[in-house]
Structures are given as C-alpha cells and as structure tokens.
Amino acid sequence: MAQIKLDIFRFDEATDTVPHRDIVEVDIPETTTVLDALEYAKAEVDGSISFRRSCRSAICGSCSMNINGVTGLACKTPCNTVMDDEGVVKVDPMPNFQPMKDMVVHMDPFWDKYARLKPYLQAKDKDSDHATERRVSPEDMKKLVDVANCIMCATCYALCPVVSVDPAFAGPAAIAYAYRFIEDVRDAKRTERIAQISEDYLWLCAHCYACSYCPKHVDPNDRIIDVKRAAINDKVMLDERGPRHALVVAKTIKQTGMLAETEVILGTVGRFNVRGLLKVTPLALRMVARGKLTPVEMAVGGTAPMLGLASMKPIPKVNEVRTIFESLEVPV
Amino acid sequence: MSTTILPEDRPLASHKSTRSRETKRYGFFPGCVAKESCKELFNSTMLLADKLGIELIELTAASCCGASVVNDVNRDVARVLNARTYAQAEALGLDDVITICSTCTGHMRAANKELLESEERMDQANAILGKFGAKYHGEVVVRHLLWMLIDDIGLDNLRSMVVRPLNGLKVAPFYGCHIIRPESVNGWESARNPHSLEDVIEAIGGEAVDYAGKTRCCGFHIQLEKDNVASSMVGQNMRMAKDSGAEAVITPCPLCHLALDGYQQDAAARWGRTDLPTFHLPQLVAFALGVPPEKLGLNKHLIDPRAIMVERELIS
Ligand code: SF4
Ligand code: SF4
Ligand code: SF4
Ligand code: SF4
Ligand code: FES
Question: Does the pLDDT of residue B245 top 60, yes or no?
C-alpha cells in the first residue's frame, strides 16, 4: 500500500467561473491505475469528482486525461509510472478541449470532425442484393487493421500542437480515420474523401509526431503521410500550398541534391502570387539585413527559378541522385 | 552534478561504440539549412570541433536527407537517398555520422532503421545504388552532435573545458520534434522528459529553464502552408519560456532556429512580445569553450543575442 496524493482539477461550468484544485489522499497499491485511484477517491472521499470511464481496459476510449502533464488513458497508466517523489499524481482534463466538469470535456469539435468524414463504408456495389459478401484480400485488409483499432479517445487530438492554435485543423484521429476509408478497396468515395480531408487542412499537419503517443498504436502521424501520398498519387487538389511544397522540395532535391530554400518558397507560395510573396518578403528582407541570405542569393534564387533554371549549385555526383529518383519513378 | 538518465533499453544504434568514436574522426552531415540560411551554425560547429579535438569530415557529396516532406511524395526515395549518404561515409571508413539538425537526425535515423530492419528494403536500396557502383553495408550510426557531446566527450570533460562560463544565464532548451520523436526511431533519451540540453546548459555554466514548450513543435514545416498558424506555435512556446524566466533559448535544430528567431515578431500580436534570442547548440558551447564570439555569427540572428550577453557580462 502506498499513499497517493491525487491533485485534481475541479471545475463545474454550471457554477464556476474559475477552476480550483483538490488534493485527495488515497491508500492504495502504487501499481493501481490512475483511473482506479480516481474511482477510489470518488467512492470513498468525494462523490462529486467527475470523469468519464467505462471499460477500464483501454477499449472504450472514455478516460483520456492529462496526467502529470502527459495526456493518455487513465486506465492504462499505473500511478507508479507517473507519480513524483511525494506520490503526487496531478490530473487535468485533456488540453485542446473546453472543460465541462472536472476531467469531463466537451467532445463536440472532435466528433464534428469525424462526422464530416462520413465515417462509414460507402460501398462500390451499393445496389447489390447482399447475397455475396464483399471480399477483401488479406494484403488489402492489412493496411486497415491498425487504424481500425482507433478507440476515439482523442488523446492524439489533445496532444496536437496545430489543433491548439488552429481549431479548423481536422486533427490526427480524423485524418487517420479518413485513411481507413480511403484505403478500403470496397469504398467508392476515395477521391471525394481525399478532397474533403484536404479541405479540412490535411496539409497543415506539422510533422511533429506528438500523436505517435496513441495508446492503440494507430500512429496517426504515419497515416497522415499515407493520405498525403494518396492525394499526390491520385492528383487530388494538388494546386494548394501543401502539395506544391512537397513536390517542389522533391524537385529541387532531384535537380541539385539539396533543398534550395528560395526556390521552395517560390514554388510553394506560387511565383506569380504577389500578395503571398509580399507576406513572405519582410522575413526574407530581415534575413538579408542580417546577412542570413545575401541579396545576390535572394535575387538569384528569386529570378533563376522564374527562368526555369536551378538556382543552387548541384552537389557532386548529382546524377546519382537523379538515378535514384528515376529508378523509383518519383513523379517530379 | 546532473547526469542524463538514459533509458536502459534505448536502441543500440543510438549509442553503440563506433570506430569513429575511437579515432575521433566522424562523418559529418551538416544538412541544407546549415549550408544555406544558417551558415553561422556550420561555422560554429567546425570551430567547436577544433576545441573538442575531434575531426568532422564533411560528406560533401551527400544529398538532402529528404526532410520530412519527401515522404509525402514517395515512400522509398528518402530512404534510398540516405542509403547513398551512408555508403559514402562507409567508403571513407567512417561509421558514425554526426548531424546538427533535429530533422536530419530523425529522418536519417528513420531511414537507417528501415534499411537495417528489412532485408528487402536494403536490397532495393542497394540495387539502385549498384547502378552507380555504390553499396551500403549497414554499418553506419547516425547521431546528433548533442548526443555525441554527452556520450563521447562526456559532461564532466565538457565542464572542465569551459573557459567562459555562462554566469547563470537563464537558457530555455528547445529540443524540436525530430531529435526526440518518435521514440521508436530516436529513443536516445525520453521524449517526454528529455534532459540532455539541460545537462549541457548546466555544464557550460548556464541555468536551464523548465517549461512545457520545450518538447513541442515550432511549426517550421507549415510556415508556408498557413504562416499565422506556424508563428502562433512559436509564440505559444516562447511565451511559456519567457514566463518561466528564460533570457535566451538554445536549440539543436536550425529549422527550429529559423522559426524561433524569425517568427517571434509576427507572433507578438497574439502572444505578446517575447524577443528571446535563440542560440544554436554549437554556438553557445563553442562560446563557453573559448571560441571568440565574433567568429560565431551572432550578428546573423534576427533577434540579436549580444544584448543579453553584454548585460550578463559575457561579452563587452
Ligand atoms: S488515433 Fe489513437 S489516440 Fe487518436 S483517437 Fe484513435 S486511439 Fe485515440
Ligand atoms: S504529427 Fe501532425 S497531426 Fe500529429 S500531433 Fe503533430 S501536427 Fe498534429
Ligand atoms: S532536414 Fe533540412 S537541413 Fe536537414 S538535410 Fe534535410 S532539408 Fe536539409
Ligand atoms: S520543432 Fe519544428 S522544425 Fe524543429 S524539428 Fe520539430 S517540426 Fe521540425
Ligand atoms: S476506461 Fe475505457 S479506455 Fe479507459
């Protein structure tokens, strides 16, 4: 038995304007999960402590919360893996959500982003008489099993730094779930789905891998890259900054072996997009002022690509790089 | 004395001893940004290497690592590009490639992991490399300079080399994502509670500032996608650093540097002015080890770090 001090975020949107904290001490084995510790506190000390839970075994996706600064499933987190030297376990609601009561948050933005995906099979053989089953080969199914494990706990969404500054971003779980249907061979709406998720800022993912802490190993970070590749492969909504950026980076690497910064900026923003370029220019000018870019580099970088020339000196043996691109049939 | 607690089960490829470690001759992959808009990073790294008594042999024919975007276009190309770089290192007799960019570290390690874990992928890469007579034998370890400082030079040793301690300058570590995440690729230290930058800051006489933003993303890779989002990510993190008392920031990643140094101004409207000068890791270490400050390119930063250095009587 150990003494665990639960340091609990308390807030009730119906009555409170600001949150406060309660410390509840419980005598339980230190290997108890944070969820069971909270259950104990609720049963024995204060029945008003609120949190969502159901399965207690990482299946239902209800109990994600912030535990000592780290968001994850309370039912999958033993106290002794998180408590500090004084046995304190600090629990807060998931970040990136509006708190409702204690650890219970308003999940609506998360569900809304799911709903926009039409997260159900829109089958190719819709009019079939259902006499035959829709068969999927094991290889095709293999692509889907991991994402199908998503329990919609929103841990990844709470961890996502882009969601934290721009709530319009679909977020990791929704994009991973879009992948689940985009790569389903039975689904008829692949193109529409890619277009929809592109509109919901697929390309705004910052590649930060914060969502790699998914408790069910869905790895939304990698599924996001898969969806982007599907968009490029199928040529869906490519005239946007995100895909243009990826393609121009690949192209400059093929041409010079290196990532040519100025060319990438022009290629991404659009070389005839004067307004867009003017927005980038102050930073470029600041950089020139500090000698980070020389005026010559800026001018050469700025005009050479307009003339269709590569602006950077290629690396030695750049032909080898081109051989790699050609052997793999990279579409640039 | 603080020491970095390293996970017992960290992947061998992040710390196994290499020939380079014995000969103090390392392969060096500076990456594009250190050769383009962050030349001061490249220069300070070379000056630091002199002070440390190690030789960094630049892989001059190496290509870009593919950054984090080339994967968006093709699943294999970044892996094969990096296999080419590793083959070049091996041909020079080097089995340890040092990087100075978090993004290079993460992506080059990911490529190496894929190659080492799958014969099929290694064969695919070597089939292409074979077209120009190259072959990767799988001997290379990719590490960030930060890890090399701690594993090969050692914190105590580093501390003993300091001639210009930082006088307790309050420095906020900013790791950047790809040197810590995903842990399956990096794993040299805990990604949720890393300590290496703090240890280096303290070894060179600074005071490490703790703040939640230190392991968060700077938004670099979406600057061109939606710049107000990217600058807001910078502002949010720098706000946390400033509120925790930071006087400056240190980062092992030139992309983070471009973001933090370049975008605090634009983020001020939403997050308030922060104006934290940002050092490249090798810049500040080289300074503490006695490299003359005028050689470190401090004047290249948009937020000039020299003001706080004068205030703290580090330079005159
Ligand atoms: S992807 Fe993972 S973390 Fe995100 S909601 Fe699904 S199970 Fe939870
Ligand atoms: S990798 Fe992308 S989706 Fe995942 S947390 Fe980072 S920004 Fe969000
Ligand atoms: S990550 Fe960046 S700096 Fe590193 S090689 Fe690639 S593009 Fe260049
Ligand atoms: S913080 Fe940003 S730029 Fe730095 S490594 Fe992460 S994603 Fe890349
Ligand atoms: S209670 Fe169901 S996932 Fe934790």
Answer: yes
> Which protein residues are within 6 Å of ligand 2, measured from CB?
A 159-162, 172, 205-211, 220-221, 224
Per-residue pLDDT of A84-138, as tens digits, reads: 989 999 999 999 999 999 999 999 999 999 999 999 999 887 766 677 778 899 9
Tokens of residue A260, six digits: 């040519």
The confidence score (pLDDT) of residue B36 equals 81
Chain B residues in contact with A250 (beta carbon < 8 A) = 69-70, 73-74, 77
Same domain (yes/no): A85, A141 = no
Query: Could you report the predicted ipTM of this complex, rounded to two decimals?
Result: 0.91
Is the domain of A23 the same as that of A80?
A: yes
Q: Which CATH number belongs to the domain containing residue A85 in this structure?
A: 3.10.20.30
Cβ-defined contact of A286 to B262 (cutoff 8 Å)? yes
Chain B's closest residue to A270, CA to CA, is B224
Query: Between helices A261-269 and A241-256, what is the axis angle to 10°?
Result: 150
The closest residue, in CA terms, to atom 2 on ligand 4 is: B218
Kindly state whether residues A265 and A302 are assigned to the same domain. yes
Q: Which residues of chain A have pLDDT under 70?
A: 127-129, 270-312
The structure's pTM equals 0.91
Supply the pLDDT for residue B80.
Answer: 98
Q: Which chain B positions have a beta carbon within 8 Å of A268's beta carbon?
A: 224
Q: Do B181 and A161 touch (CB under 8 A)?
A: no
Per the structure, the complete domain to which residue A250 belongs is given by 241-328
d(CA A230, CA A250): 16
pLDDT tens string B137-192? 999 999 999 999 999 999 999 999 999 999 999 999 999 999 999 998 988 998 98
Q: How far apart are CA A34 and CA A44, in angstroms?
A: 15
Q: Indicate the SS3 state at residue A207.
A: coil
- Kindly report, residue by residue over A197-239, the tens digit of the pLDDT: 999 999 999 999 999 999 999 999 999 999 999 999 999 999 8
Residue A135 and residue A217 in one domain: yes
In this complex, the residue of A260, A316, A328 whose CB is nearest that of residue B74 is: A328
Same domain, A269 and A301: yes
Give Cβ neighbours of residue B298 (< 8 Å, ≥ 6 apart).
B40, B283, B304, B305, B306, B309
On the question of pLDDT at B309 being above 90, the answer is yes
Count of domains for chain A: 3
* Best probe residue, ligand 1, of A150, A169, A227 (max atoms within 8 Å of C-beta): A150
Are A135 and A224 members of one domain? yes
Asked which of A233, A252, A274 is the last residue of a domain, the reply is: A233
- From ligand 3's centre to the CA of B64, what distance in Å? 6
* Nearest CA distance, B165 vs chain A (angstrom): 27
CB contacts under 8 A, B 146-165 vs A, are none
Let me know whether A177 and A116 are in one domain: yes
Residue B2 DSSP label: -
Do A69 and A85 lie in one domain? The reply is: yes
Query: What is the spatial distance between Cα B129 and Cα B87, in angstroms, rounded to a whole number?
Result: 9
Residue A119 phi, psi (nearest 5): -80, 55
Domain stop point among A217, A233, A249: A233
